[in-house]
Automatic annotation (TrEMBL):
Pfam family, one: adh_short_C2
Keyword NADP part of the UniProt annotation: yes
Record's keyword terms, sorted: NADP, Oxidoreductase
Organism encoding this protein: Actinomarinicola tropica
Gene Ontology MF terms: cholate 7-alpha-dehydrogenase (NAD+) activity
Organism superkingdom: Bacteria
Keyword Ubl conjugation: no
Name recorded for this polypeptide: SDR family oxidoreductase
Length: 274
């Protein structure tokens, strides 16, 4: 019942997609800091390699770059093949790779629909399917393997931006998580989802006027619209991910847990000045 036992992920092997920046990088860093070996993947090879090298040095741990485009089966199978060359088992899969597209309703293009759905939904399903043999190697009733899907509060509430395919895709991720969890729990694999709110990421920066400049975005101003008065931190998302990946989360199955500073439940009060 001690903290070190309840929340330990020491010695675990994890794959974090979209791990070269943003929320994926935050989760990967949290895993590395607590004794896990972490593989990260992202579409841009140079950035993925650089992040893996930096995190390895920062945490004196093994972070391995496996860049790939997870919006199609060719990219998914390439990633899984290279992963199998390096390890014969996987304890934690974090499906974080995602895309978004913004355009007015009357002008929203098919490419903006397909790109987002292929990455955010199809990629989650088929990557999980392809790595099931790796997840089952060490999975036991006492110590199940874990799948953590990264959804979004925009899959729960009406998005504030004209990102029509993004909100729909994240709602699909939440429901897919429940359906997959019902099947995987019988195989000693636990699946849950996290629905993050505002975090200091490239994706949100493009939406709030920062143009993708994460360092240059006024995150204090963005956070003032949140009940907690700030945007999320690496500790927030990494802490929840570690809970779900550790003994402490072994009886939590098929849930979508918000990590949003109270935005979903308190947004109305904030708008009314309550």
């Amino acid at each position: 019942m001690k903290i070190n036992d309840l929340f330990s992920i020491d010695g675990k092997t994890a794959l974090v997609t979209g791990g070269s920046r943003g929320i994926g990088e935050m989760i990967a860093a949290g895993f590395l800091a607590n004794g896990a070996t972490v593989y990260i993947s992202s579409r841009k090879a140079e950035q993925c390699d650089a992040t893996a090298a930096r995190l390895s040095e920062q945490y004196d741990a093994e972070c391995i770059s496996l860049p790939s485009d997870l919006s199609n089966l060719e990219g998914i199978d390439s990633l899984v093949g290279r992963l199998k060359e390096r390890t014969d088992s996987l304890d934690i899969l974090v499906n974080n790779a995602g895309a978004s597209w913004g355009a007015p309703l009357d002008e929203f293009p098919e490419v903006g629909w397909d790109k987002v759905m292929d990455t955010n939904v199809k990629g989650v399903f088929f990557l999980t399917q392809r790595v099931l043999p790796l997840l089952e190697v060490n999975a036991t009733a006492e110590d199940p393997s874990r799948v953590i899907n990264i959804g979004s509060v925009d899959g729960i509430q009406t998005p504030g931006f004209d990102t029509f395919s993004y909100g729909a895709s994240k709602a699909a991720v939440h429901h897919l998580t429940r359906q997959m969890a019902a099947h995987l729990v019988r195989r000693n694999i636990i699946a849950n989802a996290i629905a993050p709110g505002p975090f200091p990421t490239w994706m949100l920066s493009t939406g709030v006027g920062g143009g993708g400049d994460v360092e240059g975005t006024d995150w204090d101003a963005v956070g003032q619209g949140n009940p907690r008065g700030r945007v999320g931190s690496a500790e927030d998302i990494a802490g929840l991910s570690i809970f779900l990946a550790s003994r402490a989360g072994a009886y939590t199955v098929g849930e979508t847990i918000t990590c949003d500073g109270g935005g979903i439940i308190g947004g109305g009060l904030m708008r009314r000045g309550g």
